[in-house]
Each structure stands twice: as structure tokens, then as C-alpha cells.
Amino acid sequence: MWSPTEEEKYGVVICSFRGAVPQGLVLELGETVQILEKCEGWYRGVSIKKPNVKGIFPANYIHLKKAVVSNRGQYETVVPLEDSVVTEVTATLQEWAVLWKQLYVKHKVDLFYKLRHVMNELIDLRRQLLSGHLTQDQVREVKRHLTVRLDWGNEHLGLDLVPRKDFEVVDSDQISVSDLYKMHLSSRHSVQQSTSQVDTIRQRHGDACRMPVPHHFFLSLKSFTYNTIGEDTDVFFSLYDVREGKQISERFMVRLNKNGGPRNPEKIDRMCALFTDLSSKDMKRDLYIVAHVIRIGRMLLNDSKKGPPHLHYRRPYGCAVLSIMDVLQSISEIKEEKDFVLKVYTCNNENEWCQIHENIIRKSSTKYTAPSSNYGLIISLQLLRGDMEQVRRENPMIFNRGVSVTRKLGFPDVIMPEMKIVGCDIRNDLYLTLEKGDFERGGKSVQKNIEVTMYVLYADGEILKDCISLGSGEPSRSAYHSFVLYHNNSPRWGEIIKLPIPIDRFRGSHLRFEFRHCSTKDKGEKKLFGFAFTPLMRDDGTTLSDDIHELYVYKCDENSTFNNHALYLGLPCCKEDYNGCPNIPSSLIFQRSTKESFSVSTQLSSTKLTQNVDLLALLKWKAYPDRVMDILGRLRHVSGEEIVKFLQDILDTLFVVLDDNTEKYGLLVFQSLVFIINLLRDSKYFHFRPVMDTYIQKHFAGALAYKELIRCLKWYMDRSAELVRQDHIQEAMRALEYLFKFIVQSRILYSRATCGMEEEQFRSSIQELFQSIRFVLSLDSRSSETLIFTQAALLNSFPAIFDELLQMFTVQEVAEFVRGTLGSMPSTVHIGQSMDVVKLQSIARTVDSRLFSFSESRRILLPVVLHHIHLHLRQQKELLICSGILSSIFSIIKTSSLEGDVVEEVEMMVESLLDVLLQTLLTIMSKSQSQEAGEYVSCLLSLLRQMSDTHFQHLLDNFQSKDELKEFLLKIFCVFRNLMKMSVFPRDWMVMRLLTSNIIVTTVQYLSSALHKNFTETDFDFKVWNSYFSLAVLFINQPSLQLENATPAKRKKIIDKYGDMRVMMAYELFSMWQNLGEHKIHFIPGMIGPFLGVTLVPQPEVRNIMIPIFHDMMDWEQRKNGNFKQVEAELIDKLDSLVSEGKGDENYRELFSLLLLEKIEQETWRETGISFVTSVTRLMERLLDYRDCMKGDETENKKIGCTVNLMNFYKSEINKEEMYIRYIHKLCDMHLQAENYTEAAFTLLLYCELLQWEDRPLREFLHYPSQSEWQRKEGLCRKIIHYFNKGKSWEFGIPLCRELAMQYESLYDYQSLSWIRKMEATYYDNIMEQQRLEPEFFRVGFYGRKFPFFLRNKEYVCRGHDYERLEAFQQRMLSEFPQAIAMQHPNHPDDSILQCDAQYLQIYAVTPIPDSIDVLQMDRVPDRIKSFYRVNNIRKFRYDRPFHKGPKDKDNEFKSLWIERTTLTLTHSLPGISRWFEVERRELVEVSPLENAIQVVENKNQELRTLISQYQHKQMHGNINLLSMCLNGVIDAAVNGGIARYQEAFFDKDYITKHPGDAEKITQLKELMQEQVHVLGVGLAVHEKFVHPEMRPLHKKLIDQFQMMRSSLYHELPGLDKLSPACSGSSTPRSNILVSHGPMSPESIKLLHRHSPLNLLGSVRHSSSSLSSHTSSETGNLVILTDSSVGEAAEEMYHMQASPSTSSLSSTHSAPSQMINSAPSSARDKYRHTRELMMLLPTHRDRPSSAMYPAAIMENGQPPNFQRALMQQMIGPCKPCSDPNLSVADKAVPAAPSSWSLDSGTREALPFLSVHVGSILAPPVPPRSLPHGHYSLHFDAFHHQLNDAPPALPARTLRKSPLHPIPASPTSPQSGLDGSNSTLSGSASSGVSSLSESNFGHSSEPPPRTDTMDSVPSQAWNTDEDLETPYLPVRYSLSEPDVLESLKSQPCRSHSAPSGVIPQDTLDPPALPPKPYHSRLPNTENEEGMIIEDDDKHRQLHRKVSQPVSGGKEEQARVAWEHGISEQ
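and the corresponding C-alpha cells:
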């Protein structure tokens, strides 16, 4: 059975549990669980992470922890019973873990690794804390480290700041808001501070200064690596102050042996010292560590003769220095030792040895020698802080190493009390410095080597043992030997020796210095030649003064005896001594050497001995009874150090003197006492205050002293009004605290001794004293500066006496004293500012005193304290101090409120402070003083938080009038609003912000009832209500309350503590709105925006409460105005800005619609309401889509689509012009960013069209200044024109230029007019000269509900980017919609796809259907112009899909091949304001096989006519290869089928019988076939005229095959034998060398995607066989790989043929315009695609271009080397085809013959042809009608020799030359054959062609620029006579006589026409329309120069470009043909 657990309540998972049992709870390692029940080894409970999911888990997987359970039962809460810091660390680590991983994802690597390190440290520290093995100090230290790291991590991760006290998180309920604010402030400033931030929070306002922290240097000598001395050395380390030029520390001595190791083996690794007691001031000094090296050995290091080896001298060797300033930074940052190397420099001149360290520091390099290497003394340093006790505790290892404590010379800055009182050691050190000596030579030629020996002797002559210390680190010794300076009679030593002489031996002891000359001769004796001495104590009991003492030198020798020291002690030791005893007998044994002297300096550091005579006199005052007054007066001149050393003795003496004669000495003793007390206020002696306290408590015995002290104190105060000099009065005031301590203690002693006698007198004397105090404070000090200082001193000391008074008086009595005193101070108005501060500081300390913590005293003191604060706040003075006082008061009241009742005090504060606090806050907030604002906000919040119902009730009842109440409400609402608007509290102060919100919402609940009660009915006040609503809205929108953004743990924490405060405020807001009644109308439309903002908060409850308010607003406006236009307008406006700010979501949209529609249902205005709500809902859909696109990493396309969608909605659906214009500009900016300049121009045009050419003034809007409408429109037009220019859409810019020109003309602004006309002209030039790319168009279907609203289940046509092909476009779309699935078929999707929660994309290419047919049909319009109209202003697009209907005929598939043609109509033309527009309408038609055949044949006829016309009209220059191949392709196919395929299919009797309705169409097909034969005849005639002699065999072959073709068609089309006289002449039959092929099946086609690896030279846009339907291109972008080897097996060729979806007659679609490099068939077989893929690939545009005529295969415009000679021969005297300078490096591959045509007969011819094919362009031939009966072919009379041929345009390699597509239909004009157009779908083969388009691949590289008609107007190669006579078009006539006649009349040039082709009379053809340009010939025969295209202009482009070519008048030609046939 499951039973509830009693003890097992909380645990940690120690092994992950997968929950693989029924009701199992999945648990991860480390999770915490709350256990509810147990049963046989299992627990049931919840994970703390997911408290809502209960489950079971094994008990042995859980480690139990102790916990506190509250509220036992179903809703019990469990808190682990562990250190709160551990709990916090655990929770924080879990929170960090998630964020830490995100850092890695966001590439914040640096922080990632730092945080990992800190987390590991936290885990380690937590483990230490949990171990339970730490001491209290260690626990504290670990907690400090933990909290520092927690704060660091929280700050860097942007988490909330955690307020702490003593390392533990504070509970905001337990402390006042002011204290909480201060904790936050302190935590914020001390994220890296090591001490608790809150410890000092209660030490406020002028606390006695804190004790400075001493610093210590730990120095350890590691080794002396530069010890090449070979002798023992002593190294002395000391600290040296450069500025003062003296040592500041004792010396640390290390004795090393000659190997550099310690002389004492025990000292290994223990050569370390601690330089102690360095103050902060010392650390700022320019300190150096100086090391002097003294060697012990021979006199001269390198001279063994100087002195015997057994005698050792101390000799100077070298010195090293290290600047502490340089290394302080590095050693402060680390907590361990850091090594340094000190170079040891040697002295150049021993006489300057005492200055060597200064010379090294000053870098006087001439005075010392640097070592030869970098080695030297290796030391390590470490900086330690704190008093010695703390340092010992924290660094036990240092002290275990036997560290030598090396003190400062003299006392430290902070002197510690002496032993008798607090138990510190007694110090008695005399520091003696050997300064210098001056000695005589003594008759020697060289100077002496002087050594000084020093002894300390006691009074009895005994040498004191161990009283000389050369330095710490070595034991003291009995004698000192100085170092010896070689040959120096005036040595300067500068060596400091410490003399630690016991105090009891000090008196009577003296020092003796003996001087010896150290000879370096053989014996090496040390000869004594003199001595000096000095006693340590004077006769008056004072010690040797701290000074330089010049001692007398007395002569003596080795024989002299010092046994009887009395012999010399009677002699004067120095000059001062000599003056004291002038009568010295001259017969003494020792004679003074008057020319010799010896100087030493001394410094005493003693806690017991004094050098001061006055101090000794005071202590022995009884010996000098007459001088007592003088002695007391001289005490002021004794130094502080001496006084604190003898503090107890002095105080005892003073009080004894006072008792001895109060009257006589009272005042002097009082002054002395004041002097000593004030001395202890100095920071140097601050630590002696406890000594004084201890003395008063335990040693003070002056029971009667209080009377005299009170009397003197009162006397001083009473005289303060009279005296001018008040220094002594001020000193007494400053000493007030200790004077009162003495008074009170004295009274206590007296009371004890007398059992409480004279109590009344004492009380009254204190009363009188307080009266004097009040008197001093009440004096007007404005006139007297000295009095100000007196009052200030009194006020500063005053709060310190409260504790003393409390020992003698009750709390109330003391409080009354204090109240009276504080009350006696003048108010702010009457005193200066400096006194203001002092007064407030005194009040502050009063508030902080113990007295104020008693509620009895608070009731007495609060009124006077509040009175003063109120006055200051009213005048806005000293705000910071006031805020400090207030926060202290609130802190105390909060603490008291937890224990008792504080209602009365809070009431007092509300009355006195609330109003003035609000006023102060408003003033501060207006000045943005954030520091002060924070203080006062916390005070206000503290007060409001303490207020209860009664307080609020009293407050509201106390207002005299409604105006007062209104003013108060406005103030408090305004403060609250500012509080939320201004960031008074930083973002991470979450605890503070939440508490603030809680207090505000509580306060507002109290105040809203007053608002409703007083300002609703007749007294309605809009201002107050508006203020209230604004506050509520701001409150709900606060970032800190948006719980959705918080982590789950944080959200739970907030909800548990405060609930969702937004909901509380929303309910309050709603109820207040309902209370408004009819006054609601005042807030429409003003509050719509704010309320809308509230409803957009993502909190369902808030939305449910607030959305119905909109219905209310609509209802009230409907009642008042009969409509709700205002609500509507405002709602839409605000919705836009709010959603763009990131508010709102899909749920809101649904809820908004649902709630409002539900409410509106009941209304009379239901229809308009529903319409409005629907409209707003739809707007929201678009806005949300727009926002999602903008804020995400969405592509430009999506953003543009969204913007267009939203913009159109604003315009068309809700008619919001301003919003519409805003989005126009947003869209324009997006287009510019994406470089869609044309679209940007169209977008801006929308705004331009809204403006008129008027002078109406327009306001400033967006980035437009205030200007007239005319100016704005002009500026817009100019900008739009500029964008059209950048987008190369000059045709769109020209009408705008004209419009501007009209305006300028009407204003006579000729300057602008000139400019705009020039611009227009430039645009015309650009159209003709600049190349433009023709874009692809793609149809995209977006299916599925996952797409944004504006795309969902819609289809669009998109204008592709430059060079963008289908695959690239498809890839781009899939990257824009990464979730989308590409559909693999072109069929329209069904409902399952449309409604599914997914994204499907369907993409294929479509062909544009141009609207501007007229311009495309005009003959003379250059192709550059036409190409623009082919792809611009397009609204309709076509996509064809071939399919078989009915049974499929295996022999001839054309019988069943149908075309499904889809025409898409868009909502707008492309290009427009977007690169894509939605499809508005789809039309689907099916084209029957017969109709398809008609179109194919018709298109081929049109193409042939155009080509022939161009050759006739000289638009094709020089090279006839294109015509050759085209004719070859049509004629040669007929030999093996060609048109016969259609004959079989449609002229068959069965077919005619089954399809009687097709008779007309069959006739039409027959006529077209007949027409084709006629056209071929004309073509052959033209070919005959222009063919090169070398190409005659080809021509002959064509003639033969044409005859065969005619005969094969003879049976079907009788009469053909009569046609084409041009071809009936004799012709040699061609040898049958070509293999023919039968028809190909669709299964045999091998198709490759155009980006397949085998597509080496480019991509074929689409496929077609020789039997190509017009839809062949619709099969997609396919690569057909042809094989370049001529002798390929027929079978292989067969396998490459296209499907019957292509007919033998060229379709309306053009072929690929570039040849394809062939690949081996094995490679081809690898990449076969299924027929289905072919169906999916994109369609191609129906564009006039020719793929039939590949340009000659050239390298960079030149033929390959192997062909060049042949070319020269064949072309003969023609000019070079290209610039000979161009490179021939890249070899071009010859084009292959068609590998999938029905006839491979052209295999032989093609390679041959392809060598000679040039890019020759000529204008098309306009056909003309002829008289009936004529049927002859008339040619233009070209009377030119070949050497008249024009320069050939550069031929292009097949990689670079896309050719023109085949014309779409007879009505589609033909482009020139320069290959600029990309190909469209459709067959490339002609009606009888054996050359399929597959011969010409589509290049991925750009062609060279081959400008013709635009750059060389009518490329001229005619002679002068041609210029006069217009060229003649071809005539199709049946009139033989005319032909003969014309033969006679026309003279012939060298080339005769073929038989039957007769040149026409020049007068017959009608005049051609004039050309817009004339040819310019460069030769001298013509005055007009011809423009020749330069080869360097042939730029490489990556894609098809529009090339200029004149089209022929195809329509006329067709009419002529039809007319001729019908006549026949």
C-alpha cells in the first residue's frame, strides 16, 4: 500500500531513471524530487523541474536530504534544510547550465570558457561547504568566494542581481524598501568585492573613520646565482624611500657561503622576511627594495698579497634594487609569490659606496658597473594585507617557514596599544646609523683602512650580550664590526644597526666605538688608534634624542685599557656634553683628537622610554610642586606617540592632580584631558580608543571628578557667546563623548561609594548643562564664523553622548533632552548651508543611535526629526542627507513593525512626509537625477508599504477639498508613471522592480475607490481619470511583469510570491472603466491605443478582460455619432505601430475576432461592426506576417512580398493613405537594398501619382521637409527617373522625363528643361547602345497552411534575377522556405495538399506573351528595342505540356500528340512594384496534333522568309553560312522524311475520314507545305547569288536534294513540279554519302538536365527533334549531348533523338541558341532522365531567335589556327572577321551535326559549314505584292564584287554566342540572327530540316558584343550608286515577260544570278519608309564616315543579351505568298 512519507520528503537523483514502468517518472541525474508517498522500495512524487507531473521511481535511485515541510498535505511545500548559499548555488548552476550551452551556439566562445571555469569553481566550493570540515573562518571565506562568483556569472549572463546580507539572499518582506535599495546598490558596485556588501549598511553619517588596513611584503631569497665572488657574503635587504632619501625599514640579513647557499644549512628554503606595517600612504611612496652585498674575506678580492688569508674583513661588494611601484600591480593581482631577478651592480669608487643604491636608482651608470650577465639575486615577492593576527591566520605556511619579521623604523602609522592594557608586546629598539668619520693620516703616506667596532656596555662596565642586531634573520651579537673602505680616511658607512636593549638595562648603559687601522702587510694587524662613546640616557632621565650625534674621538692605542670605563665616562662624549662640563682636567689618560670626528644618528622606537622632558616632569609632578601649572600647560607640546605610550600613567596623574587641588588645577586638568581625548581622534592613534575605554571602565578612579568636569564644560559653553577666539571651546565640544564617559563613570563610582548621594544635584547639573547646550545652539551664528564652528563641533559630538546618558536616565528622559536640544536649533531659513549639513548629520546620527530604536523615544523624537526634514524637502536642500535619514527611519520602523505596533509612527510620517515626498520626487525626476531619485523612490515605497487601510482612510479623509484630493491623486499617479517610464532601477534589479510593482498595485487599489467616489458623477474630472488610465496601461506593459519572457523557475517564483500583477491591474482597470458610465465617450479615441497595447500583452486573462472594452467604445461612439469611425481609425493606426513593435500573435487575432463578434452579435449595428472586426482581423494577419518576415532572417523576397501585401491592404481595403504611403517608402527601401531599382521606381511612382502639380503646401512627413506639393512631386519624379536609369528601364523613365519637361516648359525653367531633355536623349542613346539582359520568368505555387497568409495556396509569376536559371531560382526558393517540399509534377494540387500543415512549392518556367505586338511586327525596329517589349509590361504567360490522347501510333506518334497550353494572367504587369505578382486567372486549352503541325510549319516558313529577306536587304553581311545551314536543315530532312511525317499522319485517307471537321486545317497545312517549297526556291536563289566559290559543291548538293524533296511531295501536292524555276536548272546529283534515319520514338530520347556534369559548353534550353512541335521547349531545360565524331554509328544517333513531342517542322518556340559540346555516348547513358522529369522542367519563352545558325566557331572572335588559312581562301578578299590581336589560345570545338534529327545527312556538311559561318546581319526584306500571272523570283540587284564586302563582324565561339530563337508565328516578328535572345521552347528544326536545334547549346558565358543595327546604322557595304538607288526587295511573281524585261534593263555585275532568277527593275518596288539613321562610310568616296564596331567592345556577358537586328515585314511577305499560291 502507498503510504504518505513523514521524513523522506526531499531527495536528489543519483542515477538516471528512464521511467520504463507504468506511471514511471523520467528522472535525470542531479534532479531534485519531492516525495509524497512510499511503497516497498518505491517512491511516488514529483520532480521539482516539472511539479505538475507525478510518477513513481525507485527509492534506491534517490539520495535523501533533510527538509522543512510546510502546509503538510496535498499542497505541501518542501524546502531543503541546508545552507541557503548551497541551495542558491545549486539553483543557479542549473539555470546557468542551459544558458552556458546557448553561449556556444551563439559563438560567444570567450564567455563560454570563462563561465565553464567559474562553474567548476562553484561546484568545487560547494563541495567544500557541504563537506562540513571547515572552520568558521574558512566557511565565511568560501561563502565569500561563492557569492562573488555567483554575482559575476549573473551579471555576465544578463540575469537578475541578487541582494544579499552576510552572503545570504535577503527576503524582501523582512527589510524595508530603502534597505533593499541600498543592498542592490551595494551589490551592483561590488560584483568583484570580497567583503559582504551589506555589512556596513547601518554604519552611516559620520561614523568614526575606519582603521586603515596595513600592508606587508613577504620576501624570499631563492638563490644568488651571480656569486662569482668566491667568498662568504652577507646580503642586507631593506625598503628605501627615494623621495626622502632614507631607509624606512629594518634590514633583513642573509648570510651566504662562497657557493651562494646559506651559511647555515638549516636556512635552506627559509631565507625569507616579512616587511610589516606599511600603510596605504607608504604604498603610494616611491619605494625600492635595496639589497647590499658585503663580502667577508681579503682586503682586495683579486690580490692575494693584500693581507694574510686568515684575516677576514667585511668589504663592500655590490648592490641591487627593485622598484616596488613597477611590480606592485602584478603582485597585487595574484595571491601567491612571484619571482624577480635583481642584477647586482658593483661600485666603481668605494668612497661612494654609501650612495651606490641611489646611483643605481638614478641610473648614474658612470658610478657603477653592470654585471656581465643577467643573473643575480633571485627573490620572490608577495603582498599581504590585514593586521598581523589576520596575516598569521590566513598564511600559516609562511610563518611555518621561520619568516623573519622585519619592522618599519619607528612606529607604524597606526599604533597598537601597549601590553598592560590589551596585551601587545613591549617594544624597545634603538636604531643606530654609522654615518661618517674624519680621521688623520697619522704620518702615513697612504690613507688608512678603518674598521669600527661597537659594544654596548652596562653601568658596571660589563659588555651586554646579544644587544646588537645587524638585521632580522640572524641572531643578535655582542660586538659589531663595520665594513672597511680601502684607503679612506673619511669613510661614509650609512649602515643601520638595531640595538634591542632591555628596558631595565637601558639606564646607565653606553655605547663604545673603537677605531682600528687594518694593515694589509704580512702580519695583517688591526691597530687601535682611537675611540668614541655615548651614554644612552641623559641625566634627566630622557633617552638619547633622535638626531645625528657628532662624537668626540679620543686617541688611544692597543696598550690602552678600557677595564675602568669610569676613566672615559667622565669625559664629554660630544659638544653638548662638553658645554655641560667645561672643567675637564687635561691630564687624563685619554686625549681628545680635535681634528678627528665621528658621527652617528639614532632613532628610538620604544613603548616605555621617552625622550621628552616635559612628560617625565608630569609623571613626577610631586617632585616639582611649584611647577605644576607650568608642567600641565606644557603637556600640549608633548608628541602624540609619547602620550599614547604612557596614556594610563598620564590619565592617572591628571586625576590625582585634580583631586589634589580642584580649584587651582581644575581648568588646566580639564584642558589637558580635552587635549588627550582629541589626540585619540587622530587616525594614527585611533586604535587607542579601546585603551581609553578600558581605562575608564577598569582603571579610572576619580569619583569626584564629575563635578569639576561638568562645571568646566558648562563654563566653556556659557562663554561661547562672548569670546572671539573659540578654539579651546571647540576642542571641548569635540571631546564631548569622552568627557561624558568620564562624567558618567565618575558619578557611578561616587554613587557606589556614597550609596547614591547627591543624585538630585547631579540631575540638576546635567539639566543645566543641557540648557547651556541649547543656548549655544540657539545663538545666531550668521555673523560669527567662529561660532559656526563651535556649534558644528557640538552638533557632531552630541549624538555620541546618548548611550552614556542612558546609563543614568530613562529612555524618555534622554529623549526629552535630545528633543529639546534638536528643537533649539534654528530652522533652515535662518542658518547657513554649512550648518544645514551639520544639523542634518547630527539628526542622522540621532536616528542611527540606540536611543532611536526604542519606540518610547521614537514617539518623542520623530516629530522634531520629521519637522526638520520636511523643511529641507520643501526647499529642496540637502536631499541626499535627508534621504539617508529617511531610509534609516524606515529601516527601523520596518524592523519594529515585525515585533510590535508602529501605527502611530506611520501616521505621523504620512501626515508630515507623503505630500512633500511626492513633490520632491516630481522635481528630481524632471531633472533626471537617478541616484537621488532611487533614494527617494525607495523612501516613498517604504512609506506606502507601511500604510494600512486606516492610514489610507485617514489620508483621504484629511483632504479639505476635492481640489486638494485631485492634486494629490495627480501627483501620486504622475510619480508612479514616471517610475515605470524612467529606469530608476536597472533592468537586472528584478526583486526591487517586482516589489515596486506590488506596492503600486496595492496603492492604486486603495486610491481607485476615492477616484470613483469623488470624480465620477457631476464632478467628473477628465485629467485625473486619464492619469489613472495611463498609469494602469503603463503598469500592465512593464517589461519586468512580462512573465512569458522569464525562465519557468523564475516565473513560478514570481507567481508564488506576487501572483500575476498584470491581471490584478487589468481587473481594476476594467471595473474603473465600467464605473465611468456616460463619461466613457471622453476617452474615445484617446484611450484606444493604450488599451490596445494592454490587450496585446500575451496574457490570456488580461486579453479576455480588456478586449470587450473595444465593443463598449464602439457602442458609445455609435450612440453619440451614429457610427464608430473614430474607434475604427484609431484602432487601425495603433495596431500597425504596436504589432511592428513586436506585440500580438496569432492567438490574439483569433481571440480579438471571437470576443468582439460575440458581443456585436446583439447590437443593432451588427453588420458594420462585423465588417469592421473582420477588416481589423485581416489587417492583423498581414501585420503579423509582415513582422515575422522583418524580424526573422527572412529573405528580401519574403519581406517585399509581405510589404506589398500590407500596402495594398491599406490602399484598397481600409483606405488609409498615410499608412499606405509609409509602406510605399518601406517597400522602396527594401527594393533599393536588394538592388531592384526598376521595382523601387515603380513603388515610388505610387506616391508620385497621389500628388498633383499644384502649389498646395505639404507638412513635414517621413524624410520629406515642409514643401509645396509641386516641389515634392518634382523631387519624386527625379528620383524615380534616377532609379529607372539604374534599373536600365529607360523606356519607363522617358514618359516621366516628358512630364517634367512639360512642367519646366510651362514655367519657362529652361535650365531644368535643358537638363531633362538631355537626360531623355541619353536614355534613347542607352536603349540603342547598352546591352540589357532578358530575364527568365517562373511560375511558383505556394501550397499548404504553413505558408504566410499572403502566400498561402496562391500561385505567382516571378521575374528572375539577371543570369538566373530555373535551377538557381528553385534553389533560391527552397532556401527561402527551408521547410518546403518541392513538388515533382506540374499538375494542379488537390485539397489534401492545400489544407495540410506543411509547405509545398511547385515551380516551373513560363513564357511571356507580350502585349506590344505592334512594335514587334514592325520591320525596321532594331532588336534592341523589340527585346524590351518582349519581356516588359507582360501580364500573360504561357506554359505548354505535351501529352498523348487516345491510342499511340508506334509508327507515327504525331497522330496522337496533343499540347495542353496553360495561359496565366497576373493581377499586375511585370515589372511592377514587386518582382512577382499573383496569378489572377488561368486558361487551359488543348492544341490538336494537326493544329500543332500547322503552327510548326508556319513558324519554319516565317523563319526562312525572315532569313532570306535579311540576306536580300544586306542585313546579313559577307557570310552566307547561316542561310546555308538553314536551307540544308529543311531540304535535307525531306529526303528521309521531314514533312512526310505530317503527310503520313494527316493526309492519310483514314485520318481524313475520321476527322471530317479538319478538312480546312488539312488544306491549310498543305498550303503551308507548298509555301515552304516556294520559300526554299527563293532561298536557294539568294544562296546562289551570295555563295562563295568554295561552297559551290554544297549549293549544288542542296539543289539536288531540293529536286528530290519536290518529287517526294509531288504525289500529295501536284503542281510542285512547276514551281521554283530557280531550282529547276541543271544540277549534278550528289553522291549519297549520308546515312539517313527513320523516325524516332519518344522512348529513345536521352535527356540530361542542363546542369549535368556532362554539359561542358553550356545548357540547351530545351529539346526538339526534326519533327518538333511548338511545345518541345515546354519539356524543360534539358541538355542534349551530341557526339562530335562524324562517323558515329547510326544506332547511337538514333538513341539521341527526341520524342515525338517535337515535329519535323519547327514550332513556334525557339531553340537553344548555342551549340553543345558533345560527349561520348557512354557518358550520355549515365544521365538519362525519365519522361516525367521532362514534363516538370520549365517552359521556355516564345521568343524570336534563331538557333538554326551557329556562328562560326572562333577563338575570341577568330577562327582556330587550322581553319584560318581555309577561311582566308574561302572568303577571299573579304576583310578580317575580327581583331587579329585577339588571343587564339582557347580552342573552340566544332559543332556536331544533329545527333537526333531524322536525317543525319548534314553530318558531312556541318563541320565544313561551321568553319565559315559568320555573324552577318542585314535588314529584313519587305515583301511586296505582284501582278497576277507573274510567278518569277526577283532579286535585288547587288552589283558588287566580293572585294566590296564589308568588314565581317567578329564571329563568336559556340560557347559565347547564343543565337536567335525561331519566330513564334508568322505574326511574331523575326529578330536578326545575331544571337542575342535566349531560346524558348519549341523546335529548332525547320519543316524539312535535318538540322535540329540540338546543334546549338545555350551558353553559360556571355557572347562578345556584336552590335549591328544600333551601333552601325544600316551596316553599309554598298557603293555610291547604291546610296542613291534603294535596294529592291524580292518579288514573287508569275509574270515571265516582266522577268525577261528586267533582265534586259539591268546591267550585271561579276556574279550572275542563277538560271531563272532575274534581277528586278529598280523602279518597281515602292519606296521604303525612311530609316531613323543613315550609314556613315569611312572611305573618301563618301563624305559620311562609316562606324565600325571595335572589337574591344565585345564584352563578356554571362547570359543572353538582346542584340539589335531589324526584323522584316513578315506579314506582308505572308500575304504575298498566299496571294501567289492562290493565283497558281
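(Above: one complete record from the training split.) The radius of gyration is 57 Å.
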